[in-house]
Amino acid sequence: MTTNELKRKFIEIFGDTKDCSSAETSVAKNSSRNGSGNGSKSDSKNDLRTGTESEAQCDFADISGENLRVFASPGRVNLIGEHTDYNGGYVFPAALKMNTVIIARPRKDRIIRLAATDLEDRVTASLDSLDEYKNLKWGNYQLGVADQLQKHGYEIPGCDMLFHSTIPFGAGLSSSASIEVATALTLVTLGIELFNSSGNKLPGDAQKNINLIQLAVISQKAENQYVGVNCGIMDQFASAMGKADHAILLNARDLSYKHVPLKLEDCKIVIANTNKKRGLADSKYNERRKECEDGLRYLNSAFPHARYLCDIDYDEYKAKEYLIKDEVIKRRVEHVLSENNRVLKSVEVLEKGNLDEFGKLMCESHASLRDLYEVTGIELDTLVDEALKIKGVLGSRMTGAGFGGCTVSIVKEAAIDEFIEVVGKNYYDRVGLKASFYISEIGDGASELKMEG
Q1: 47 an active-site residue?
Q2: Which pTM was predicted?
């Protein structure tokens, strides 16, 4: 949808209130507890609101469509560096040209209203009682961000926000992190402008500049503490800090980073979703983490100062690998340390413009995840195997935690149609599932967009 189409949708949902009177305050107070239900389908546009339709349209001033603001934050894909983050290593994500877009306008009260272009659900919540809304089916990511912003000292306004996304939901492309970062940028930007003009003090350097890294950290905390999902920082960081035609070398432990050129030239990023249900993913993920912790304990006699596996140099590890008596744990450690090296090698070759060599490193990564870390399975392996049979595929690997989910491939544009047709057919023939495919370029991180017209 264009921004003008979003503008019209916004007015359709929230109403054109340029002629409203002072009814806003009382209606807002009455509606502050709305939205604490289970987020089920609305029976009408007035669901989750109080009062009559005319009253509901009078709870903030002048929403005639003028001065609406548009913000966007992208999804991401991790190009290489899997299961290294919680071992103190490097990851290599990139922002995609797929976004969550928010059209928004601040309110004069302490109410947040949320809507989406593809959902009937509407959420109305009070900024003064956000703990009451944690069990929403939809809207808890946004409210969690508002909650954490306030806990970090930000003054944020009540706001009406309409969400539109081009990121496929559930495809492993970080649609939730995109929602969080876009929400944080919207609320902080509007809050700075509103409260700066009233002379109120804002936290830290937010008085001068918006710190996108801080917003990424706050977004992660919202997902951890409000939503209850134990995610790492990579997704939110990539969404906030992405740069067109660049990937991000990120040290997940201390958040040091640099942008690395990723000039795809005549290639595109193609993501293939296995569409496999990942019933055992969480338990296996936790099992792998414990195996890595056990591996570090084996090695601590030789490397007493290592807090994480990736504190240990790969070559130095190879001289001491005999300390690990368990062959399974030895394989896990071998993957983590070799994968961390591959990330750094990827940076070297890409800075030289060698996309072909990077593709080979992607393939090595998948083989390691398959044979050493054992987190792939027939679905991911089939997608990668079939991809590498296509002329014009430079590299392919699983991305994410594994046990289902997605692969990422670098494919020449001229081969994309064949890739989707042949890989899709052969995957279905071998596995019995239909894969979904998404084509993208590398885009920028979170930002405010210009309203058309």
Answers
A1: no
A2: 0.85
